[in-house]
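Internal ticket #5521
Category: modeling
Description: The requester needs a full-assembly model to guide mutagenesis choices. All entity lines are attached below as received. Residue total reported by intake: 1552.
Assigned to: D.W.
Attached entities:
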Amino acid sequence: MTPWTRKLRMGMIGGGQGAFIGGVHRMAAAVDGQIELVAGCFSRDFENTKKTGAELYLDPARCYRSYEEMAEAEAKLPADTRIDFVSIVTPNKAHFGPAKAFLEAGFHVVCDKPMTYSLDEAKQLEQIVQKTGLVFALTHNYTGYPMVREARELFQSGAMGTVRKVLVEYVQEFLAAPLEKEGMKQAVWRTDPAQSGVGGTIGDIGTHAANLLEYITSDPIAEICAEKSTFLPGRVLDEDVNVLLRLKSGGKGMLAACQVAIGEENALRIKIYGSEGALMWEQENPNYLMVARMGEPLRRHTRGSGFASKPAQDVTRLPSGHPEGFIEAFATIYMEAAAAIRAFIDGTPMKSSEYRFPTVHDGVRGLEFITKAVESSDAGASWVKLAP
Amino acid sequence: MTPWTRKLRMGMIGGGQGAFIGGVHRMAAAVDGQIELVAGCFSRDFENTKKTGAELYLDPARCYRSYEEMAEAEAKLPADTRIDFVSIVTPNKAHFGPAKAFLEAGFHVVCDKPMTYSLDEAKQLEQIVQKTGLVFALTHNYTGYPMVREARELFQSGAMGTVRKVLVEYVQEFLAAPLEKEGMKQAVWRTDPAQSGVGGTIGDIGTHAANLLEYITSDPIAEICAEKSTFLPGRVLDEDVNVLLRLKSGGKGMLAACQVAIGEENALRIKIYGSEGALMWEQENPNYLMVARMGEPLRRHTRGSGFASKPAQDVTRLPSGHPEGFIEAFATIYMEAAAAIRAFIDGTPMKSSEYRFPTVHDGVRGLEFITKAVESSDAGASWVKLAP
Amino acid sequence: MTPWTRKLRMGMIGGGQGAFIGGVHRMAAAVDGQIELVAGCFSRDFENTKKTGAELYLDPARCYRSYEEMAEAEAKLPADTRIDFVSIVTPNKAHFGPAKAFLEAGFHVVCDKPMTYSLDEAKQLEQIVQKTGLVFALTHNYTGYPMVREARELFQSGAMGTVRKVLVEYVQEFLAAPLEKEGMKQAVWRTDPAQSGVGGTIGDIGTHAANLLEYITSDPIAEICAEKSTFLPGRVLDEDVNVLLRLKSGGKGMLAACQVAIGEENALRIKIYGSEGALMWEQENPNYLMVARMGEPLRRHTRGSGFASKPAQDVTRLPSGHPEGFIEAFATIYMEAAAAIRAFIDGTPMKSSEYRFPTVHDGVRGLEFITKAVESSDAGASWVKLAP
Amino acid sequence: MTPWTRKLRMGMIGGGQGAFIGGVHRMAAAVDGQIELVAGCFSRDFENTKKTGAELYLDPARCYRSYEEMAEAEAKLPADTRIDFVSIVTPNKAHFGPAKAFLEAGFHVVCDKPMTYSLDEAKQLEQIVQKTGLVFALTHNYTGYPMVREARELFQSGAMGTVRKVLVEYVQEFLAAPLEKEGMKQAVWRTDPAQSGVGGTIGDIGTHAANLLEYITSDPIAEICAEKSTFLPGRVLDEDVNVLLRLKSGGKGMLAACQVAIGEENALRIKIYGSEGALMWEQENPNYLMVARMGEPLRRHTRGSGFASKPAQDVTRLPSGHPEGFIEAFATIYMEAAAAIRAFIDGTPMKSSEYRFPTVHDGVRGLEFITKAVESSDAGASWVKLAP
């Protein structure tokens, strides 16, 4: 049985009862029928792990007390039984440990973002991935939307010219009330520097915005001037950040992220003005990409239409007008990681340059962004350079 | 092992290579991790079935030559192996046969719409379902959207008053070119009365529009005056229909369906004006429901928000701003059918009045609508009464 | 002094204190600086007329007790003093009298819609206009929007092909509460058949919808099947109407008008699907026209852009992105009527086929529509033919 | 005759053939029927002035060779003949001279923005206005939109709490092509520092964005960090600017202005997130204001509705759904200036704190913003304080 004639076997770290993103990863992994969940350590609390495993119809023998135990035990299972890869969906602080453990045990990894707790961890992880040659996919899930692929294609083909200006914003109401005081698990760890790292909103959503910009334009952020703010009493991490951007190409931009923006749900919006054309995309209405060319009517590119580009079509499941959403975009990262993993197993690994999903390098870049944004803000919002 | 502690086992009729809706059913069944596909007869062409089965990682022994063979063989398998239900995703002409066969073999059924080829078949099927007491879910999938549930709740609670006027339209470009001449499978059977029945667009999408209206308002269409049209040369079935509506409550309305509407993708839109308030919803942007009350600002209800109603929350997977789409709405029908099937297996069957998913009765109603719309149009677009 | 080197002089019938549309006509006439208001009979109540005249800085000598007096007196004034035309902005019942009087006294006329109280009056008026050869403009003001001109051009040029289906709706909340019982002047006369005629909503807004459809497509409504409804107790005129349409070309359509539609402000919306393309326009967001062609991205045509058609540019005052609104569209009717009046005075009258503004023929057509819609509805919503 | 029983008489400086904004001022002054244009010096070229005057039906005797001549001549005319105020619609460089001349000759002034060529001129002008006590209105016309008044009221009433974050952007395609090389008059002077001053886009549209933010929130911009850019070869003034903002209240924000943004027409958009609620408004769709409160559905406030605030109603001409546009908003500045001028003439001058229209103080503030933004950018985009 080749890796192409069976489902891939997934394990999961994190995502126990009370968590949010773990369930999303499971739906994303399940929807295309290519992956089955067979093992997990869903919580530090083994009772939670057992209950979660039961809810997910797992074999209790493959519900583990710790990720270390799991990596070790799975590695000892027969090749036709053990997991092919692990999905890490814990808070930031708990990404590096399992990622290192599973990679070193020979397993491929899908990891939530930001990739690690610190830039230093990120660089270590990058070395481990390079050394092992295993597949590592980072779930900057917004890159999975077909219309984001369309946008990227429009820049890669040259149709948009070079970037003049980018306006990217990611705003949420999520933390406008002090939910962490009510024990809301998502808010507790996100507002705790011991679990999140030096960035609050910068890391949680600011990195998505920065990644999206670079993913679409292939034009790296070269310098930033960032100001972070905290409004609710008692909080220590940033809830809000405004960033001036200088791109490598000479283009300029602004990035705003805020988690105390009343009325906003999950509003990641990007407008990119190039020398030949411009694009506008909004995550909350993701099936459309507005495309402008000078002196012409604005055009609405739609997911699933006959005129969509090949890279967009490649990650499209349904015809136009049948909206795909967040789960499908997320699933695309899994689908593409699965293809890379299968190629690896099959002895014909892809080059990382062939990956369309975000990689460990994007993860390092995210930590670079967080670290430098905090550094800039702490210096009174002055300019700092990002490592190339 | 109870039906609650294992995944349900699904078989599928139809959905082989070249089909569209079968894949949607499979993704919908998979996403929530509650159902596994284990058997199928995907095509009249056994080669296609075998290939499709292989692509879906099925046991070749459970890929069948015909639905009759499959119903018989599955019924003989041990209780812990055989399918729990079958999903029927063939063209209209081929719904009744397998539905009857599997119901009579003791299997629950999920069936695509319109339910049957003719009203007579629909009524026979209704009797079989009633006699067997088995679960029968009809995939009027648009009823699975959380904001459709919100809309229904706003009418059921009385907040919108009684219906004054409904404007519902379902328009597509899909058949604006003669795709059936190019052999496009979806177009071939939809334009062929031998496979579709007496209604073309009326049946394919008109029934969705009629069902949505009745699902939200619980106010049955009592009389209709319908005019169907065919524009492309060589076609015999309607591509377009306009219908005046009289509702049981005394409310009035209009229903438009068209599959030669250039520029439209899958635009099912409904506006319902009641005596106390009004609702507007669009399938292509399904996460929002606009709600009006006299003299007040229009409000945007959103899926996944804290203020959504319980019926909407019950079928919501993600927080607001993380768009759910077509697959998730479709999955809700499967999720609810699965709960009904599990309750049945567990010996505590639900009453059909407890079902929130569309049932065999909705299926009969759909064929009644098709039949009477064609009758009305054939009589020069004169008024006809629908059976209550 | 030629008619081209001075402002035109306007008189007004109706539009006294408490009225609505008179003020709109005055703003529309004023904005382009081509017309000055110099005389009026604003009300049957002479005190109201005098007060209104004073507010408008008119010479008290030219505020008249009755339209008859005004027509007679103005006709006796010197040619360089007397009005060039009169604007009639009274309720429907009071259109015919002054229109006839002023035409017969040699004055051009701008008249609000529906043109008259009855179809018979409309036909009489048509004959008077033809006999006198004077300019008669009917303020179906929505035809003055640049993007409506763009739409018309797209049909006249053949770019959209022939009409397949039209969906036009005009819905308002305006009469959802019984405002006439509170003495609200606009509601009082609109709900009173003695002032409005046989049509309520059909006449007040239904005629706008029908006119817009014919204006854009040049494809006359040939047959209708209409159902009118009244929901609020005590009302006698229709508040709501649904109409099936057969166009001369063979195209089909639906027209909905409703003034008890909670949540709707002044929502005139039209979608026209042709054999080569399709258009969507909404009056509440009038600076945009969505244009579709088969298999291509939807395009947003905008008022004032470089790519707008000449007929749209001809009636555009501001660059794109600087929204023009209701008053400007209304003003376009005045601007075009003024050009026709000046040409007449100058001895080089335009042919009525050169008029882009709605004329007395459109007025007859409007009354034909009202009369036949009521006739159809009274016959149980059966089909009736419209005079060609 | 009191100033309340006659139209006000306006003179105009600038706005000859080939100009754009002069025509807008004339339409804005005309639409409400309160002001008549009676004199002008429309161009440095007297032939142009004479032609323009003729087109506007002016007395040739009141078409002047220079603003100096006009100020002097008009001052000598009888009180019941001479202009009441002058409207200055020239390029920036030519604002100060006429403003000073007419104020010193005793005339009120309406002036386009930015108010002057330099901050120094602005401060001088402020002193002249204060000394003379005359009315000076600055046409930051976007403040005239009813929904901007609604927004301001929502902040002034405390309903939105204190500002946390502002995102304001003003983007246009206007200068994306080198139109100044084709002699397009609007582009020529805007790209010429000798006529525009130190700011290009910053002054032309950046000041509108800054003014709008301060007008709505009453929360002054205290510090800025600005980066300006120029992309097209041969240009010297900025075409683009990105600005980080610190507000006096402690709120933060970003302001983007760009005139080389392909696909954008005249997109002034503002989102203000406060501690109690949030607002979103877009100039291109100005009749709506989206209002958010924590945990509640987004509400659409509409111009002309029964639920609009009094300050919004005060500047509303039409019921909701009948869109008002750019000219009407502009006209509101004239209408309010006219009321102030009449009160002055009548001997009961308003206090400047009662003015709702932008004043000479806003003009100084605009030049402060331009000057400091350029200073910040020239210092490598570092922080500078604005005068309070």
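Resolution: model delivered.
Comment from assignee: Chain D touches chain A through 46 residues (CB under 8 Å).
Ticket closed.
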